[in-house]
Amino acid sequence: MEEEKKVCASESAVDGSRDVWSSEPSLASSADHLVVMVNGILGRETDWKYAAEKFVRELPDKVFVHCSERNVSMLTLDGVDVMGGRLAEEVPFLLGVPAFEKVASCVIHFIFRRTGRHLFLTDDDEGKPPLLKRMVQDYGDLYFMSALRAFKRRFAYSNVDYDHIVGWRTSSIRRQSELANWKDTNNEKYPHVVYEEHCKACSDAEQCDSTEGNSYDKIEEELVTGLSRVSWEKVDVSFRNSKHRFSSHTIIQVKDQITQIEGADVIQHMIDHFLL
């Protein structure tokens, strides 16, 4: 415990969110990268506790980590748009650090203000296309794809099996035919990373548009096509040899530091590939 105090410090902000930074003032003052961690459905800001502290321990003079608290537990069911609005309100509030707030003010208009209908593409707000379909392009004055393109690199970490919450095809932004042929790895540093792929941005002409079937399949194809217009680095992960493999959905983020520490190598992979 004493060692952790020397390495990083954390406190709850006014809104209940969790901020993590180096406890050494000289290191913390030079941090120039903001890492925002957001929990999944029915999750909490503490789900990212291990990852947040690990980031700061590894990069004490480079990063400041903010674990969002605006969308926790039942609030995650309010809808993608509502949650986006809450996060947009929260991010500029960070620390009162001028440098972070200045950056946030430049991108805040990229994020705007019910979750099941959104995820299953059944929402119909005033006759508009489903929200997720709108989000794979710049829609009106909402610059969704422009915001995504603003990042130099985009990573997608995916469980290839035993994740019964988010399927491999969905989390890795692939068509069924594009799923990788993978095998167990002998990589001692990242034993659970079984496949890595760099996917270049594709033009519309390069996309497969031969999808047949119901309208849902067509919309799904549009989503994959839209998101493939930017490059991705895809990292496939497997915990199939773990006795806790049926908890792969949360092991990948080390939600519990005692029973799910096996996922630590995935967090380490994120840190090692973090662009500074």
UniProtKB/TrEMBL annotation:
It comes from the Eukaryota. Residues 29-91, 93-170 form the DUF676 domain. InterPro entries: DUF676_lipase-like, Lipase-like. Transmembrane segments: none annotated. Pfam families: DUF676 (PF05057). This is DUF676 domain-containing protein. The lineage of its organism: Eukaryota, Viridiplantae, Streptophyta, Embryophyta, Tracheophyta.
